[in-house]
Input
Amino acid sequence: MSERYDRVYRQSLDDPAGFWAEAAEGIDWQRPWDRVLDDRAMPASRWFAGGVLNTCHNALDRHVDAGNGERVALIYDSPVTDTQQRFTYAGLRDRVARFAGALAARGVGHGDRVVIYMPMVPEAAIAMLACARIGAVHSVVFGGFAANELAVRIDDSTPKAIVAGSCGIEPGRIVAYKPLLDRAIELARHKPDFCMILQREAGPAALIPGRDVDWDDAVAAAAPADCVPVAATDPLYILYTSGTTGQPKGIVRDNGGHAVALKWSMPNIYDIAPGEAFWAASDVGWVVGHSYIVYAPLLNGSTSILFEGKPIGTPDAGVYWRGGAAPGARRGGAPPAPAPRPAPGPRKSRSARPMPGSTGG
Output
């Protein structure tokens, strides 16, 4: 292992362009890049300049096209609602395409920003992937974040649309998201064209006529949208810092370098193969959730576990260990608590030794 690490590490230093060009072979491109690393305008370097791809295609469609449509892409595990749900790659692709069509039908397109203010439900990942599918730029704000903080992010990103859940579910209480969203829009100088609201049974919300659209109604009336080719250097998402030490700062991730690096990390850092399951016990409102709940496992053709719950109280601390023992789960990370214990993978030669990880807050 150390010899392989030393060799890979040395290659990445001695020939970074060749190293990442080789890694990029794991991604489908509509057009290959002109330069792996365009560093002519440092420090504003750009990866895979000239290349054209679609991140959603690489996360979903290409696996279906390769005959793996019935492989499980996402497992939703929600102890707070006593729900478990599985989505195959084909099923998830179809849901994403339909929601992308609902956004596109209301004028959302390439380069438009979409704020996503959702609990840890499958629709959060669906909304992110739908934006990527049509070339829109998503900006996920942690579900339940205060109205004034949400307003700051609305003003900075100037979204055409906001996608939100009606509520989140915490141990012992329901957190109504919609009043926070309404107040944030009231406070913000920028106003979205519309809001798409996922109504949850635990806490449905009143919709504002002319602005708010019911998720289910919009999806039912929508035609599926195809993947839109975008430049590798086009932004995929904006994610804001917490703002605890000043004005929140939007971090922009582009499509090409992001897809290449995350796809490469799954087998090479986490030792996860296509078809194996991975649990990052984080939240999609954090960069860990973006990278290792939504994008990296799907780019790799693996199965991602999306968990709606807490380390304690849903119903107890043992839920993390039970979750880590989901069929095929082999790795994980949690912010900033200890990670779950992954169970043995489907390849019987794999060790069941726990591989915990932790991420900072």
Summary: The domain at 2-333 is CATH 3.40.50.12780 (Rossmann fold). The chain is about 35% helix and 20% strand. The first strand starts at residue 35 and ends at 38.
